Every structure is written in C-alpha cells, then in structure tokens.
From TrEMBL:
Keyword presence, Acyltransferase: yes
Entry keywords, A to Z: Acyltransferase, Cytoplasm, Transferase
Protein name: Class I poly(R)-hydroxyalkanoic acid synthase
InterPro entries: AB_hydrolase_1 (IPR000073), AB_hydrolase_fold (IPR029058), PHA/PHB_synthase (IPR051321), PHA_synth_I (IPR010963), PhaC_N (IPR010941)
SUPFAM superfamilies from the UniProt entry: alpha/beta-Hydrolases
Poly-beta-hydroxybutyrate polymerase N-terminal domain: residues covered: 97-268
Annotated GO biological process: poly-hydroxybutyrate biosynthetic process
Molecular function terms from GO: acyltransferase activity
Tagged with keyword Methyltransferase: no
Subcellular locations according to the entry: Cytoplasm
Limits of the AB hydrolase-1 domain: 270-511
Primary location: cytoplasm
Any one Gene Ontology cellular component term annotated for this protein: cytoplasm
Length: 585
C-alpha cells in the first residue's frame, strides 16, 4: 500500500509537469485553432459520407442492419462462452495485428467481446466509406483517413481498463508504470516545445559520424542553403561522370547513409562512383525567405558548379529522393528551357511530379489549411520539424502514434534503439517561403505537371526534359504512391525506365542487396495504367540496386583514376557528415 500511495503522489506531481509542458507552446491559441480547423474538416467530410448514404434510405437501413446483426452475433457468442460452451469467434483474431497479441484477447470472454466488437465496428465504418455512392475521390480519401484516425484512437488496446496487458502491468507495478510513463510524457512535451514529440527510439544510442552517416568523405562546398559532401573512393578507378544526390529537405540526408550495412551512398561508392550529396541547412527564422527557387539556384545548380570545380567535369548524373526528386525534376525542366546540358541522366527515388493522385498527404493541403499554415509560419519563419514529423506519423496512426503512446506513456517502457526511427526523429525545419511555394504549386495547383510553373520568368515544361531517366517507385508507398509516380513519369520527353519496388517509401528505396529482401518489377517505359503495366512486368527477387547500377553505368561507362575529396579544385572544409546535419530542430 505504501508503494501504491507513493506512486499516486508521483502521478499527481508528474501530471502537473505534463500540464506545464503542454502549456509551454509558443502560441497555444495557434494549436487550438489548428485542432478546430481539422475537427471542422473531419466533421464536414464524414458528414458528406452520411449524406451520401441517406440519399438511399433503404440501402442505409441495410448497412445499419449489417452492423447490428454483427454485434448481435458477437454478443450471442459471448453469452455462449460465459455459459461454458465452446463457440468460435465471429471475428477471428488477426495474427498480424500486434495490438491484440496478448492471450487474454482470445481466452477471456470479456476482452474477446471488446476486441470483436471493435474490429467489427471499425471494419463496418471502413466499408461505409468505401461503398458510399457519389463521393468525389478527394472526399472519399479524406473520409477513409479520418475514419482510420478515429478507429485507431478508440481501440480498447489504448486504455488500461480495456487492455488486459496494461491492466496486468499496472497492477503488478502498483502504478509505477504510469509514473514512468507520465515522466516520459512530460519530457517529450518539453522536447517538442509544448507539442508532443513522440519518443520512438532511444536516440542516445546513436551518434552521427560514429553509428550513422559514417561513409568517409569531406564537405567541399558550403553556402547558406546547403553543404556539399564528396565521398572518398574505395576503387582505384571511378566512372568519369560524377553522381549528385539531391535528398529531401523535410528530413536529413543520412537516410541514404544510415549505417555501414544500409548505406546507398557507401554501396554506390563501392560500385566505382564519385558520389556527392547535398546536406540541406536546418533553417532558423532569419532564413524565412529562402524560397523553392533559392533551393534550386543555391542548392542543385550551385552543387553542379561546385562539382565541376572539384572534378573538372562539366556534366553530371543526378539522383533525387522524394521532394528532392521533385526539385531535381524542376531543375531539369529549367535547364532544358534555358538550353543548358549540365545533367546527362537522372534517377528519381519515390518522386512525384504530377500531384493528381498524391496520396494521403493531400489530406493536409487545401486552401483553408494552407492559409492557416502560412499564417502560423509567418510568426516563426519556418515549419517546425516536430509538426512535420507528426504529420507523417498520423498517416500510420497504429504503428507510429498509438503503439508508442501505449508502450511509452502507459506501460512506461523506454523504446529500443532503432537506427531508422532515430533518423526519423531527427527532424528539421523548413523555411516559410520554400514550404508555401511547394505546397501551393505542387499539391494545391499541380503547376509543374500542368506546365504552368514559372521560375525566374521561365515557364517549365517537363516534355522538354529528354535525358534518360530511371524512375523507382515503391508499391506500398503512401507518401509518393506508385500510381502517382507512374503518372508523372509519363510527362518527361525522353526515355524513362520505370521500376516498381516492394515495400514502402523508405524500406522500398533503402534495400541493400545483401539483405535479400523484398522484390521489384521491371517492365520498361510507363505506358497505359499502372495495373496493366504490372501485369506485363518481370518480378525479380531482392534489391533493385544492381539493376539500377547496370542502367547507370550504361549511360557513361568511361573511367578515370579515383578522385579524393579536397585534392581537386575545392579544398576540404570539414569531415563528413558536416555541420548542417548536426543542427537540431
């Protein structure tokens, strides 16, 4: 009893700290306004689903009967179990759903009833959205997202009273788990400046340059937008044409150099490439006016100039990942429009240039939400990294939100060390001007695909991009959906090799051959619909990297003696991974 009373006192104390941390946000009214805007949008969207069903009362009554009949069957099955009979569940346990892995979810009639009722109701809700007639694609997509979000939040696995595993842990620890959980919650709210920065891994186990981003190299160029890293060769000869990698600026570049075993950069160097990569600045309020065109001019184009100074090569090959790929495609269109031939071939990793079917991220971008976001960014000069990370997290609420809320803040467990999640948690800020331009011109107005994007008075047309392109999409990608990437790949005017990888936005791209994981499909240029293209493809087990390097080398097979960073026309500034990547959001 003394331990329980002591833990109760600690709960009260930590509860105060949580409240204080939550109220420490720079502008609590802004958070309230954002929540109100999202709630209003969810209400409108789900209201449209209800309205669609009510247009056919008979059909709506049938759907309602499906729900009540299913719940009735679950209740009857539970009563039979309580009376000692053996009765098969109406909704069997899904072995892939880790939320209900504890044996009590199946063995206890009470918890089995909760699980089945929840599963049946949420499946029914998903079906209601899917089967609603007359909804436009965007409304249906948003309704499916909000339904998933609500379903994840109300799961009985999230609460002590309705989760046997949490109940047992709390009783055994006499509430000590809740004390530890509240302590971590207060720490994570403080770390996010009043916004919850969910702790997904033990970041103390990783150090840049030691455990992550370890490929040897030097920063050979730096300006206010980026650092340019040149990596040290591991072969006596290298391909004459250097490779410039343009990573996204919404995350840090070292997802491509995660560790020795998972590094695309190290692997490319080992294949005989001279690899350069951009490390974007983590901006502060003084850099609010850095725009998308600035990132092109002082990022990609400045990097190409620096590579020429370092190696003597006027022309490069380039690769872009996610929004970095969108930036690269924009740069290619700009170079084509201005008659420059600085980039001779391009690789696009999970890159969208047509945002018609841009996936779940479209949910967060409409005129009202963009106006509210621009108003918030005007106060700070940037989009905070925690907000960007949380946006990606809610796209997979079970895995990236509630899993950690339950384990961290209810069970009181410290998450294990995982390199990919450590990178994911190492968020970065985005300048106001850049982010506003990107969201408005790509997600909202789709100007790049429509041939209406203008930079420095130049109208950009992707059809004028005639260099060879290797376009890799990921089949389970919810950020840059394969269908969206496929559609955009048709807009280029030259030869495009479209390849579809297994897995998602990160795992599908960062898939070293040594792991022998996943698969990819190759079928040549993107023609027709994606589904038809897939039917005519060849499935290959394992990583797509060997296929890519074969394509890459065929573009320019000439070789030269290996180049060492700092020994060419540019002197080394510091060791890789540089200074910009170490700045915390």
């Amino acid at each position: 009893m003394d331990l329980a009373a002591d833990n109760m006192a600690k709960l009260v104390d930590h509860g105060r700290r949580v409240l204080h941390a939550a109220m420490s946000a720079p502008d609590p009214a802004e958070t309230t306004s954002e929540l109100a805007l999202n709630a209003a949008d969810a209400t409108r969207t789900l209201g449209a689903v209800v309205e669609a069903w009510m247009k056919n009362p008979q059909r709506a009554a049938g759907a309602q009967a499906e729900l009540t009949q299913g719940l009735g069957a679950i209740w009857t099955q539970t009563l039979r179990r309580l009376s000692g009979e053996k009765a098969e569940p109406v909704v069997p346990v899904d072995p892939s759903d880790k939320r209900f892995a504890a044996p009590e979810w199946k063995d206890s009639p009470f918890f089995d009833f909760l699980r089945q009722s929840y599963s049946h109701t949420t499946q029914w809700a998903d079906n209601m959205v899917e089967r609603a007639e007359g909804l436009d694609p965007m409304t249906r997509s948003k309704a499916a997202f909000y339904t998933r979000l609500i379903s994840s939040a109300i799961s009985p696995s999230n609460f002590v009273a309705t989760n046997p595993e949490l109940l047992r842990a709390t009783i055994d620890a006499r509430g000590g788990n809740l004390v530890r959980g509240l302590e971590m919650l207060a720490e994570d709210l403080k770390a996010g400046g009043g916004t919850l920065k969910i702790r997904q891994t033990d970041q103390s186990k990783f150090e840049l340059g030691v455990d992550m981003a370890t490929t040897p190299g030097k920063v050979v160029f730096r300006n206010d937008v980026m650092e340019l890293i040149q990596y040290a060769p591991t072969t006596e000869e290298v391909l004459a044409r250097p490779l410039l990698i343009v990573p996204p600026w919404i995350n840090k570049f070292y997802v491509l150099d995660l560790n020795r075993e998972k590094s695309f950069v190290r692997w490319a160097v080992d294949q005989g490439l001279t690899v350069f990569i951009i490390s974007w600045v983590n901006p502060d309020s003084s850099q609010a006016e850095l725009s998308f065109p600035d990132y092109m001019r002082r990022g990609v184009l400045a990097a190409i100039d620096a590579i020429e100074a370092a190696t003597g090569e006027k022309r490069v090959s380039a690769a872009g990942y996610c929004v970095g790929g969108t930036m690269l495609a924009t740069t290619l269109a700009y170079l084509a429009a201005t008659g420059e031939e600085r980039v001779q071939s391009a690789t696009l990793f999970a890159t969208q240039v047509d945002f018609t079917h841009a996936g779940d991220m479209q949910i967060f971008v409409d005129k009202d939400k963009l106006a509210a976001l621009e108003e918030a960014m005007a106060k700070t000069g940037y989009l905070d990294g925690v907000k960007m990370a949380n946006t990606f997290n809610v796209l997979r609420p079970n895995e990236l939100v509630w899993n950690y809320i339950v384990n961290n803040y209810v069970k009181g467990e410290t998450p294990s060390a995982f390199d990919l999640l450590a990178w994911n948690a190492d968020s970065t800020r985005i300048p106001r001007a850049n982010h506003s331009f990107y969201l408005r011109n790509c997600y909202l107005e789709n100007n790049l695909a429509r041939g209406k994007l203008r930079i420095d008075g130049v109208t950009l047309d992707l059809k004028k991009v005639t260099i060879p392109i290797y376009e890799i999409a990921a089949r389970e990608d919810h950020i840059a959906p394969a269908r969206s990437v496929f559609l955009g790949a048709k807009l280029f005017g030259g030869p495009v090799e479209y390849v579809l990888a297994g897995a998602g936005h990160v795992a599908g791209i960062i898939n070293p051959p040594v792991k022998h994981k996943y698969q990819y499909w190759r079928g040549g240029p993107p023609r027709g619909e994606l589904e038809d293209w897939i039917k005519n493809t060849q499935e290959v087990k394992g990583s797509w990297w060997p296929n890519w390097i074969e394509w890459y080398k065929s573009q320019a097979p000439e070789k030269v003696p290996a180049r060492w960073p700092g020994e060419g026309g540019l002197k080394a500034i510091c060791d890789a991974p540089g200074e910009y990547v170490r700045v915390k959001a």
